[in-house]
From TrEMBL:
It holds the Pfam family MFS_1. Keywords: Cell membrane, Membrane, Transmembrane, Transmembrane helix, Transport. The lineage of its organism: Bacteria, Bacillati, Bacillota, Bacilli, Bacillales. The chain crosses the membrane at residues 7-29, 41-61, 73-90, 96-122, 134-153, 159-180, 201-223, 243-262, 269-288, 294-318, 325-347, 353-373. Gene3D superfamilies: MFS general substrate transporter like domains. This is MFS transporter.
Protein backbone atom coordinates (compact mmCIF):
# COMPACT_ATOMS: atom_id res chain seq x y z
CA UNK A 1 0.00 0.00 0.00
CA UNK A 2 1.15 3.55 -0.73
CA UNK A 3 2.64 5.16 2.41
CA UNK A 4 0.43 8.27 2.33
CA UNK A 5 -2.79 6.32 1.73
CA UNK A 6 -2.57 4.80 5.20
CA UNK A 7 -0.56 7.41 7.11
CA UNK A 8 -2.56 10.53 6.20
CA UNK A 9 -5.99 9.25 7.32
CA UNK A 10 -4.24 7.74 10.34
CA UNK A 11 -2.76 11.11 11.30
CA UNK A 12 -6.18 12.76 11.05
CA UNK A 13 -7.94 10.07 13.09
CA UNK A 14 -5.35 10.33 15.87
CA UNK A 15 -5.70 14.12 15.67
CA UNK A 16 -9.47 13.79 16.12
CA UNK A 17 -9.47 11.20 18.91
CA UNK A 18 -6.45 12.35 20.93
CA UNK A 19 -6.14 16.03 20.04
CA UNK A 20 -9.80 17.08 19.73
CA UNK A 21 -11.78 14.52 21.73
CA UNK A 22 -9.33 14.00 24.58
CA UNK A 23 -6.61 16.59 25.20
CA UNK A 24 -8.61 19.67 24.17
CA UNK A 25 -10.59 19.21 27.40
CA UNK A 26 -7.81 20.91 29.38
CA UNK A 27 -8.04 23.95 27.09
CA UNK A 28 -11.82 24.18 27.33
CA UNK A 29 -12.02 23.26 31.03
CA UNK A 30 -12.08 26.82 32.46
CA UNK A 31 -15.18 27.68 30.42
CA UNK A 32 -16.82 24.35 31.23
CA UNK A 33 -16.13 24.82 34.95
CA UNK A 34 -17.72 28.26 34.92
CA UNK A 35 -20.79 27.18 32.94
CA UNK A 36 -21.48 24.02 34.94
CA UNK A 37 -20.10 25.31 38.27
CA UNK A 38 -17.73 22.44 39.04
CA UNK A 39 -14.80 22.41 41.48
CA UNK A 40 -11.11 21.60 40.86
CA UNK A 41 -11.57 18.18 42.46
CA UNK A 42 -14.55 17.30 40.27
CA UNK A 43 -12.63 18.63 37.25
CA UNK A 44 -9.77 16.28 38.06
CA UNK A 45 -12.20 13.43 38.61
CA UNK A 46 -13.90 13.96 35.24
CA UNK A 47 -10.52 14.35 33.54
CA UNK A 48 -9.45 10.99 34.94
CA UNK A 49 -12.41 9.40 33.11
CA UNK A 50 -10.62 10.07 29.81
CA UNK A 51 -7.74 7.92 30.95
CA UNK A 52 -9.84 5.36 32.81
CA UNK A 53 -12.03 4.50 29.81
CA UNK A 54 -8.91 4.58 27.65
CA UNK A 55 -7.50 1.79 29.83
CA UNK A 56 -10.49 -0.46 29.17
CA UNK A 57 -10.83 0.30 25.47
CA UNK A 58 -7.15 -0.12 24.65
CA UNK A 59 -7.28 -3.63 26.14
CA UNK A 60 -10.43 -4.39 24.15
CA UNK A 61 -8.93 -2.91 21.00
CA UNK A 62 -5.69 -4.87 21.36
CA UNK A 63 -7.58 -8.15 21.70
CA UNK A 64 -10.10 -7.45 18.94
CA UNK A 65 -7.48 -6.08 16.55
CA UNK A 66 -5.45 -9.26 16.97
CA UNK A 67 -8.53 -11.37 16.23
CA UNK A 68 -10.32 -9.36 13.55
CA UNK A 69 -7.88 -6.92 12.04
CA UNK A 70 -7.59 -3.14 12.38
CA UNK A 71 -10.47 -1.77 10.29
CA UNK A 72 -13.37 -2.30 12.70
CA UNK A 73 -11.59 -0.78 15.70
CA UNK A 74 -10.46 2.29 13.74
CA UNK A 75 -14.01 3.01 12.58
CA UNK A 76 -15.44 2.42 16.06
CA UNK A 77 -12.89 4.86 17.48
CA UNK A 78 -14.07 7.60 15.12
CA UNK A 79 -17.72 6.88 15.91
CA UNK A 80 -17.19 7.10 19.69
CA UNK A 81 -15.24 10.36 19.34
CA UNK A 82 -18.03 11.82 17.22
CA UNK A 83 -20.83 10.83 19.64
CA UNK A 84 -18.81 11.79 22.72
CA UNK A 85 -18.14 15.31 21.51
CA UNK A 86 -21.77 15.78 20.51
CA UNK A 87 -22.79 14.89 24.07
CA UNK A 88 -20.19 17.24 25.52
CA UNK A 89 -21.43 20.06 23.28
CA UNK A 90 -25.06 19.57 24.36
CA UNK A 91 -24.50 18.66 28.03
CA UNK A 92 -26.98 20.23 30.46
CA UNK A 93 -25.09 19.02 33.55
CA UNK A 94 -21.96 17.33 34.84
CA UNK A 95 -23.41 13.83 34.42
CA UNK A 96 -23.96 14.10 30.67
CA UNK A 97 -20.54 15.75 30.42
CA UNK A 98 -19.03 12.72 32.15
CA UNK A 99 -20.79 10.37 29.71
CA UNK A 100 -19.42 12.34 26.78
CA UNK A 101 -15.95 12.22 28.33
CA UNK A 102 -16.24 8.43 28.75
CA UNK A 103 -17.06 7.95 25.06
CA UNK A 104 -14.48 10.47 23.83
CA UNK A 105 -11.81 8.98 26.08
CA UNK A 106 -12.69 5.48 24.93
CA UNK A 107 -12.12 6.47 21.30
CA UNK A 108 -8.43 7.04 21.91
CA UNK A 109 -7.92 3.56 23.35
CA UNK A 110 -9.62 2.02 20.34
CA UNK A 111 -7.53 3.98 17.83
CA UNK A 112 -3.90 3.25 18.78
CA UNK A 113 -3.42 -0.56 18.48
CA UNK A 114 -5.14 -1.02 15.10
CA UNK A 115 -2.93 1.53 13.36
CA UNK A 116 0.15 -0.32 14.56
CA UNK A 117 -1.35 -3.52 13.17
CA UNK A 118 -2.36 -1.83 9.90
CA UNK A 119 1.17 -0.54 9.41
CA UNK A 120 2.64 -4.00 10.06
CA UNK A 121 0.27 -5.42 7.45
CA UNK A 122 0.41 -2.87 4.64
CA UNK A 123 3.60 -0.78 5.00
CA UNK A 124 7.01 -2.18 4.06
CA UNK A 125 9.19 -3.07 7.05
CA UNK A 126 11.80 -0.38 6.41
CA UNK A 127 9.18 2.39 6.63
CA UNK A 128 7.11 1.05 9.53
CA UNK A 129 8.93 3.00 12.27
CA UNK A 130 8.48 6.27 10.41
CA UNK A 131 4.82 5.50 9.72
CA UNK A 132 4.11 4.68 13.38
CA UNK A 133 5.75 7.82 14.75
CA UNK A 134 4.09 10.12 12.21
CA UNK A 135 0.63 8.70 12.87
CA UNK A 136 1.34 9.11 16.57
CA UNK A 137 2.20 12.79 15.98
CA UNK A 138 -1.39 13.34 14.83
CA UNK A 139 -2.08 14.22 18.47
CA UNK A 140 -0.07 17.41 17.98
CA UNK A 141 -1.98 18.47 14.90
CA UNK A 142 -5.23 17.99 16.82
CA UNK A 143 -3.97 19.99 19.80
CA UNK A 144 -2.76 22.82 17.57
CA UNK A 145 -6.10 22.88 15.75
CA UNK A 146 -8.01 22.97 19.04
CA UNK A 147 -5.88 25.88 20.24
CA UNK A 148 -6.39 27.85 17.03
CA UNK A 149 -10.12 27.17 17.25
CA UNK A 150 -10.21 28.46 20.81
CA UNK A 151 -8.58 31.74 19.74
CA UNK A 152 -11.44 32.45 17.35
CA UNK A 153 -14.27 30.94 19.39
CA UNK A 154 -13.07 32.19 22.79
CA UNK A 155 -15.39 30.82 25.50
CA UNK A 156 -17.85 29.17 23.09
CA UNK A 157 -16.88 25.69 24.23
CA UNK A 158 -20.18 24.11 23.19
CA UNK A 159 -19.86 25.39 19.62
CA UNK A 160 -16.21 24.31 19.65
CA UNK A 161 -17.12 20.71 20.46
CA UNK A 162 -19.83 20.77 17.82
CA UNK A 163 -17.32 21.83 15.16
CA UNK A 164 -14.85 19.18 16.37
CA UNK A 165 -17.58 16.55 16.03
CA UNK A 166 -18.24 17.62 12.43
CA UNK A 167 -14.52 17.35 11.60
CA UNK A 168 -14.42 13.91 13.18
CA UNK A 169 -17.34 12.69 11.07
CA UNK A 170 -15.48 13.67 7.90
CA UNK A 171 -12.33 11.93 9.14
CA UNK A 172 -14.36 8.81 9.95
CA UNK A 173 -15.67 8.72 6.37
CA UNK A 174 -12.11 9.12 5.02
CA UNK A 175 -10.85 6.19 7.10
CA UNK A 176 -13.86 4.09 6.09
CA UNK A 177 -12.77 4.45 2.49
CA UNK A 178 -9.01 4.17 3.09
CA UNK A 179 -8.54 1.22 5.49
CA UNK A 180 -8.64 -2.15 3.68
CA UNK A 181 -10.34 -5.24 5.03
CA UNK A 182 -8.31 -8.28 6.12
CA UNK A 183 -9.70 -10.95 3.83
CA UNK A 184 -10.20 -14.50 5.01
CA UNK A 185 -7.43 -16.78 3.82
CA UNK A 186 -5.20 -13.92 2.71
CA UNK A 187 -1.50 -13.67 3.37
CA UNK A 188 -2.17 -10.61 5.52
CA UNK A 189 -4.45 -12.61 7.79
CA UNK A 190 -1.80 -15.28 8.31
CA UNK A 191 0.79 -12.67 9.21
CA UNK A 192 -1.64 -10.92 11.48
CA UNK A 193 -2.79 -13.93 13.49
CA UNK A 194 0.69 -15.05 14.50
CA UNK A 195 0.79 -12.44 17.26
CA UNK A 196 0.40 -13.62 20.87
CA UNK A 197 -1.50 -11.71 23.54
CA UNK A 198 0.59 -12.87 26.51
CA UNK A 199 3.33 -10.70 28.06
CA UNK A 200 4.55 -13.54 30.28
CA UNK A 201 8.24 -14.25 29.85
CA UNK A 202 8.81 -11.38 27.41
CA UNK A 203 12.17 -9.80 28.23
CA UNK A 204 12.03 -6.04 28.56
CA UNK A 205 8.31 -5.89 29.31
CA UNK A 206 8.78 -4.92 32.99
CA UNK A 207 10.94 -1.80 32.48
CA UNK A 208 8.70 -0.80 29.57
CA UNK A 209 5.63 -1.10 31.80
CA UNK A 210 7.11 0.77 34.78
CA UNK A 211 8.46 3.56 32.58
CA UNK A 212 5.09 4.02 30.86
CA UNK A 213 3.23 4.14 34.19
CA UNK A 214 5.63 6.68 35.70
CA UNK A 215 5.55 8.93 32.66
CA UNK A 216 1.75 8.82 32.71
CA UNK A 217 1.66 10.07 36.29
CA UNK A 218 4.18 12.83 35.60
CA UNK A 219 2.28 14.27 32.60
CA UNK A 220 -1.27 14.23 33.96
CA UNK A 221 -1.14 17.57 35.78
CA UNK A 222 0.19 19.42 32.74
CA UNK A 223 -2.46 18.05 30.38
CA UNK A 224 -5.34 18.85 32.70
CA UNK A 225 -4.34 21.94 34.68
CA UNK A 226 -1.54 23.84 32.89
CA UNK A 227 -3.93 26.22 31.15
CA UNK A 228 -5.84 26.84 34.39
CA UNK A 229 -2.49 27.38 36.15
CA UNK A 230 -1.42 30.27 33.94
CA UNK A 231 -4.94 31.70 33.83
CA UNK A 232 -5.12 32.20 37.60
CA UNK A 233 -2.05 34.47 37.45
CA UNK A 234 -4.25 37.06 35.70
CA UNK A 235 -1.44 37.97 33.28
CA UNK A 236 -2.88 36.45 30.11
CA UNK A 237 -5.56 37.48 27.63
CA UNK A 238 -7.88 34.89 26.10
CA UNK A 239 -5.84 34.64 22.91
CA UNK A 240 -2.62 34.21 24.90
CA UNK A 241 -4.19 31.37 26.88
CA UNK A 242 -5.23 29.67 23.66
CA UNK A 243 -1.81 30.42 22.18
CA UNK A 244 -0.26 28.42 25.03
CA UNK A 245 -2.19 25.38 23.78
CA UNK A 246 -1.26 26.05 20.16
CA UNK A 247 2.42 26.03 21.15
CA UNK A 248 1.98 22.58 22.75
CA UNK A 249 0.52 21.27 19.52
CA UNK A 250 2.86 22.95 17.05
CA UNK A 251 6.00 21.86 18.88
CA UNK A 252 4.51 18.41 19.34
CA UNK A 253 4.84 17.92 15.59
CA UNK A 254 8.60 17.75 16.20
CA UNK A 255 7.91 14.52 18.07
CA UNK A 256 7.26 12.91 14.71
CA UNK A 257 11.03 12.76 14.27
CA UNK A 258 11.47 10.41 17.25
CA UNK A 259 11.70 7.40 14.95
CA UNK A 260 14.63 8.96 13.11
CA UNK A 261 16.47 9.84 16.34
CA UNK A 262 15.97 6.32 17.71
CA UNK A 263 17.51 4.90 14.55
CA UNK A 264 20.52 7.26 14.72
CA UNK A 265 21.20 7.57 18.48
CA UNK A 266 19.56 4.53 20.01
CA UNK A 267 16.49 3.94 22.14
CA UNK A 268 18.18 4.44 25.53
CA UNK A 269 19.51 7.94 24.84
CA UNK A 270 16.30 8.99 23.11
CA UNK A 271 14.22 7.89 26.10
CA UNK A 272 16.44 9.69 28.64
CA UNK A 273 16.42 12.93 26.67
CA UNK A 274 12.65 12.84 26.28
CA UNK A 275 11.86 12.03 29.92
CA UNK A 276 14.28 14.68 31.21
CA UNK A 277 12.68 17.28 28.93
CA UNK A 278 9.14 16.44 29.97
CA UNK A 279 10.06 16.64 33.65
CA UNK A 280 11.68 20.06 33.15
CA UNK A 281 8.54 21.45 31.48
CA UNK A 282 6.44 21.14 34.66
CA UNK A 283 9.18 22.66 36.80
CA UNK A 284 9.74 25.59 34.40
CA UNK A 285 6.02 26.37 34.47
CA UNK A 286 5.97 26.20 38.27
CA UNK A 287 8.91 28.63 38.57
CA UNK A 288 7.44 31.44 36.44
CA UNK A 289 3.78 30.88 35.44
CA UNK A 290 3.13 34.61 35.14
CA UNK A 291 5.90 35.11 32.56
CA UNK A 292 4.56 34.44 29.06
CA UNK A 293 8.00 33.59 27.62
CA UNK A 294 8.71 30.98 30.31
CA UNK A 295 5.22 29.50 30.15
CA UNK A 296 5.35 29.25 26.34
CA UNK A 297 8.83 27.71 26.61
CA UNK A 298 7.38 25.18 29.03
CA UNK A 299 4.53 24.45 26.58
CA UNK A 300 6.99 23.99 23.70
CA UNK A 301 9.16 21.59 25.70
CA UNK A 302 6.15 19.64 26.95
CA UNK A 303 4.50 19.34 23.53
CA UNK A 304 7.62 18.20 21.71
CA UNK A 305 8.81 15.86 24.46
CA UNK A 306 5.38 14.24 25.07
CA UNK A 307 4.83 13.28 21.44
CA UNK A 308 8.50 12.37 21.16
CA UNK A 309 8.27 10.10 24.21
CA UNK A 310 5.09 8.39 23.12
CA UNK A 311 6.85 7.72 19.83
CA UNK A 312 9.81 6.25 21.73
CA UNK A 313 7.48 4.08 23.84
CA UNK A 314 5.75 2.97 20.66
CA UNK A 315 9.02 1.88 19.02
CA UNK A 316 10.24 0.31 22.28
CA UNK A 317 6.98 -1.61 22.71
CA UNK A 318 6.97 -2.94 19.15
CA UNK A 319 10.58 -4.11 19.57
CA UNK A 320 9.78 -5.84 22.86
CA UNK A 321 6.59 -7.49 21.53
CA UNK A 322 8.09 -8.08 18.14
CA UNK A 323 5.51 -10.67 16.99
CA UNK A 324 2.47 -8.49 17.79
CA UNK A 325 2.52 -4.80 16.87
CA UNK A 326 -0.91 -4.11 18.42
CA UNK A 327 0.24 -5.52 21.77
CA UNK A 328 3.50 -3.59 21.52
CA UNK A 329 1.51 -0.37 21.26
CA UNK A 330 -1.30 -1.44 23.62
CA UNK A 331 0.84 -2.26 26.68
CA UNK A 332 2.84 1.00 26.99
CA UNK A 333 -0.11 3.19 25.99
CA UNK A 334 -2.37 1.38 28.45
CA UNK A 335 0.05 1.91 31.32
CA UNK A 336 0.67 5.50 30.27
CA UNK A 337 -3.08 6.01 30.65
CA UNK A 338 -3.21 4.17 34.00
CA UNK A 339 -0.56 6.58 35.23
CA UNK A 340 -2.60 9.51 33.94
CA UNK A 341 -5.68 8.25 35.79
CA UNK A 342 -3.67 8.21 39.01
CA UNK A 343 -2.01 11.51 38.20
CA UNK A 344 -5.25 13.34 37.34
CA UNK A 345 -7.02 12.17 40.49
CA UNK A 346 -4.19 13.34 42.73
CA UNK A 347 -3.48 16.54 40.77
CA UNK A 348 -6.89 18.06 41.50
CA UNK A 349 -6.57 17.06 45.14
CA UNK A 350 -3.01 18.37 45.56
CA UNK A 351 -3.77 21.66 43.81
CA UNK A 352 -6.70 22.16 46.16
CA UNK A 353 -4.43 21.60 49.19
CA UNK A 354 -1.01 23.00 48.22
CA UNK A 355 -1.69 25.08 45.13
CA UNK A 356 -0.41 24.91 41.58
CA UNK A 357 3.27 25.70 42.16
CA UNK A 358 4.04 22.93 44.65
CA UNK A 359 1.91 20.42 42.73
CA UNK A 360 3.64 21.05 39.40
CA UNK A 361 7.07 20.80 41.02
CA UNK A 362 6.08 17.43 42.51
CA UNK A 363 4.92 16.17 39.14
CA UNK A 364 8.16 17.38 37.60
CA UNK A 365 10.09 15.35 40.19
CA UNK A 366 8.08 12.26 39.24
CA UNK A 367 9.23 12.87 35.68
CA UNK A 368 12.83 13.01 36.91
CA UNK A 369 12.35 9.57 38.47
CA UNK A 370 11.17 8.31 35.08
CA UNK A 371 14.57 9.18 33.57
CA UNK A 372 16.09 6.42 35.71
CA UNK A 373 13.85 3.79 34.10
CA UNK A 374 14.24 2.88 30.50
CA UNK A 375 15.80 0.62 27.90
CA UNK A 376 19.43 -0.27 28.52
CA UNK A 377 22.08 0.61 25.97
CA UNK A 378 23.10 -3.02 25.70
CA UNK A 379 19.57 -3.91 24.67
CA UNK A 380 19.09 -1.30 21.97
CA UNK A 381 20.45 -3.45 19.24
CA UNK A 382 18.86 -6.60 20.57
CA UNK A 383 15.23 -5.62 20.33
CA UNK A 384 15.52 -3.58 23.51
CA UNK A 385 15.20 -6.54 25.81
CA UNK A 386 13.13 -8.77 23.59
CA UNK A 387 15.86 -11.20 22.73
Amino acid sequence: MKFSRLVLPGVTMIAATYGLARFSFGLLLPGIKESLDISEFVSGLISSLFYLTYCFTIIYSTVMTTRQGPRRMILLAGLLAFIGMLLMAATPNVWVLALGVILAGGSTGLASPPYGAAISLWITEGRQGKANTWINSGTSFGIALSGIGAIFLADEWRLTYLIYAAFTLLILIWNFRAIPKVRTGSRSELRFEKGALSIRGVKGSIPLSVASLTLGISTAAFWTFSRSFIEVTGNYSDWQLSGFWVVIGLFGVLGGFSGSLVEKRGLSLSYKLGSLAIASSSIILAVAPENWFMSYLSAAIFGSSYIFLTGVLLVWGIRVFITNASLGIGIPFLLLAVGQVIGSLFAGLLIGIWGYVVSFILYGLVGMVATLIGPKKSRDAAACGSG
